[in-house]
Amino acid sequence: MKQINKYIDSVFYSQDDTLEEVLNSIKENGMRSISVSPSTGKLLTLLVSMSGAKNVLEIGALGGYSGICLARGLDRSGTLTSLELMESYAELANTNLSKAGFGSQVSYLTGPALQSLEQLVSDNRQFDFFFIDADKENYENYLNYCIRLAENGALIVCDNVLARGTVADESAEPERHTEFMKKFNETVANHPQLESVLIPIGDGLTISKVKK
Ligand code: SAM
């Protein structure tokens, strides 16, 4: 899988100064380099633009790499709402989105995402595209909130669902979240309100369409 991803990134990745700067800013601020892969980012841009999404909700901002990729798929009237636990991460992401020209389209809610999601439900907010990329233990809770906040036909995309391939390899040393991801993938695959596929790009993405 590592080799295939390396190959995909080597053929399809082209120099992107904006995203390179985001990666540098993450390192300079002593944060972990755990942004989505270049190909995953490209796929996010394409999915947002192909679906014609207008209001995107992201869970897990880090330094704004995936945020920029999502925002690139929106037209100028589209919005990105991003949930992030760490105030300083959200500030960096906001700075990076502003530098990339999306400052007026993005807003950040800081604190535990479950609290922000509850707030969005009480505010009767609705979204047509979701990207889940935060603490893996809460993926199932996040999925349930996203379904509640979704317009009919919305897309929900979740990252890291292959847990570096360990969900499929019994002989591999399991990751901390391997078991969560196995259970999560089964939930997504069998959910009565979702039509889903898993794509082995980056660390694995599920893409689901919500039926309401
Ligand atoms: N999506 C980002 C990107 O590709 O640019 C990477 C996100 S990183 C893998 C996960 C992020 O989720 C971190 O910034 C972390 O602080 C945030 N996070 C972890 N637990 C959280 C929680 N309970 N609520 C909100 N955000 C959380």
TrEMBL record:
Top-level lineage group: Bacteria
A GO biological process held by the record: methylation
GO molecular function annotations of the record: methyltransferase activity
A Pfam family matched in the record: Methyltransf_3
EC number(s) per entry: 2.1.1.-
Enzyme class: transferase
Keywords in alphabetical order: Methyltransferase, S-adenosyl-L-methionine, Transferase
Protein name: O-methyltransferase
Species this chain originates from: Cytobacillus pseudoceanisediminis
Organism ancestry: Bacteria, Bacillati, Bacillota, Bacilli, Bacillales
